[in-house]
Design a protein that fits this description.
The protein is of the alpha/beta class. It has two domains: 117 residues, Aspartate Aminotransferase, domain 1 (Alpha-Beta Complex), CATH 3.90.1150.10; 215 residues, Type I PLP-dependent aspartate aminotransferase-like (Major domain) (Aspartate Aminotransferase, domain 2, 3-Layer(aba) Sandwich). The chain has 13 helices and twelve strands. The strands form three sheets. It has a seven-stranded mixed beta sheet with strand order 2-8-7-6-5-3-4. The protein has a three-stranded antiparallel beta sheet with strand order 9-12-11. Strands 1-10 form a two-stranded parallel sheet. Strand 3, helix 5 and strand 4 form a beta-alpha-beta unit. Helix 11 packs parallel to helix 13.
Length: 379
């Protein structure tokens, strides 16, 4: 007899049969080279930074460990305002803190888009963006990854009864490590006054652009990218996210973004830590240089191992194309002291299963040389 959970068991059995069943990884061994985290600048393990942060308070009380309420209700606002002011000074526009990149994408897209909005998104945007699009109820279409000629044709064909065209891309794509052409997006915005640009810099902030402010900040007209999303849980080794917008959009989101309004705000201590690290991050050109050096070495090794051109990015895929084989390769590497996890469907399309190498400036040149040696040896 079928029960209320029968279909759940069926789906779990299907996932296991296709090598797509997931579990939480076990605790890390201390002697592995970790290529799984998004700690791009190597800040997460920096005890010197943690000590400096706590020492700055001396005998003063540390910021609260909980906000205890939504941002619209919380009484502890100082840390939020201080960090948003720093972000606004750095980017030259208003800033709004949110609880995570997922909260940001779901809440902002849902708030801005409606039945008179046409959304046009890159085929490879993050799942949180897709969820925001679906929740908005707006019509949407997707263009082939980084195919700006196709994007331009789609935008040109949007009927006149749509008063907004929300074009969404990522600056650095999380599974392939390649980049969007921000200047080309800006040209598109200038071609139609209905176009609003939305760029997720989750994997760009801290790593790319002037002072690590991202690829939009390095573009020819940063202010013409209407919404820029940055996350704090990757290169910034903290938690949360922020949106860079103009004042009108910020006020609108404060009143309409459900993920902001109906969720307990980030702990003030976490916001203060993010503020502290963001200020440090802007001066970390040496760490960014180290990351680029690691990227060049790994790209060369992957190219040698696969006979395919590598991409010099802090995110690099080694495409295997089969879930079971990808899992097996991951286990082989772990047995040799290299932790890199398999990426499978639905995170990536079937046939593009891969190992995703996520680099960090906290790794040494010797670490990278060891990884590269194993890859070229295995082929």
């Amino acid at each position: 007899m079928r029960t209320s959970t029968s279909r759940l068991h069926d789906e779990l059995d299907r996932l296991k049969a296709t090598s797509n069943f997931r579990t939480f990884p076990s605790a890390d061994a201390t002697d592995v080279i970790d290529l799984t985290s998004n700690d791009y600048l190597g800040l997460a393990a920096r005890t010197d930074l943690r000590d400096e942060f706590t020492d700055r308070y001396g005998n003063l009380r540390m910021p609260a460990l909980t906000s205890s309420a939504s941002r619209l209700l919380a009484s502890c606002q100082h840390e939020y305002h201080a960090f948003e002011s720093l972000l606004a000074d750095c980017y030259g526009r208003e800033a709004l803190l949110l609880n995570s990149g997922y909260h940001a994408n779901v809440g902002i897209i849902q708030a801005l888009a409606d039945k008179r909005t046409m959304i046009v998104a890159d085929r490879l945007v993050h799942a949180s963006i897709i969820d925001g699009i679906r929740l908005s109820g707006a019509q949407f279409t997707r263009f082939p990854h980084n195919d700006f000629n196709r994007l331009e044709r789609i935008v040109a064909d949007v009927p006149a009864d749509f008063d907004r065209i929300l074009v969404i891309a990522e600056s650095v794509y999380s599974m392939d490590g390649d980049r969007a052409d921000i200047d080309r997006l800006i040209d598109l915005r200038r071609s139609d006054p209905r176009v609003m640009l939305y760029v997720d810099e989750a994997h760009g902030v801290g790593v790319e652009g002037p002072a690590g402010l991202g690829l939009v900040a390095a573009s020819k007209a940063p202010a013409e990218v209407d919404i820029v999303i940055g996350t704090l849980g990757k290169a910034l080794a903290s938690s949360g996210a922020f949106a860079i917008v103009d004042d009108t959009v910020k006020q609108y989101l404060v009143n309409k973004a459900r993920s902001l309004i109906f969720s307990t705000a980030l702990p003030p201590a976490c916001v203060a830590w993010s503020n502290f690290l963001f200020g440090k991050m802007m001066a970390m050109d040496a760490e960014r240089d180290t990351l680029r050096r690691h990227a060049r070495a790994l790209a060369a090794a992957i190219a040698t191992a696969t006979s395919r051109e590598g991409i010099e990015s802090h995110i690099q895929p080694l495409i295997i194309g089969d879930a079971a084989a990808t899992i097996a390769r991951s286990r082989e590497l772990l047995a040799r002291g290299v932790k890199v996890l398999p990426i499978r469907t639905p995170t990536v399309p079937p046939g593009s299963e891969r190992l995703r190498f996520s680099l960090s400036a906290g790794l040494t040149d010797a670490d990278i040389a060891r990884v590269c040696g194993i890859l070229t040896e295995q082929g």
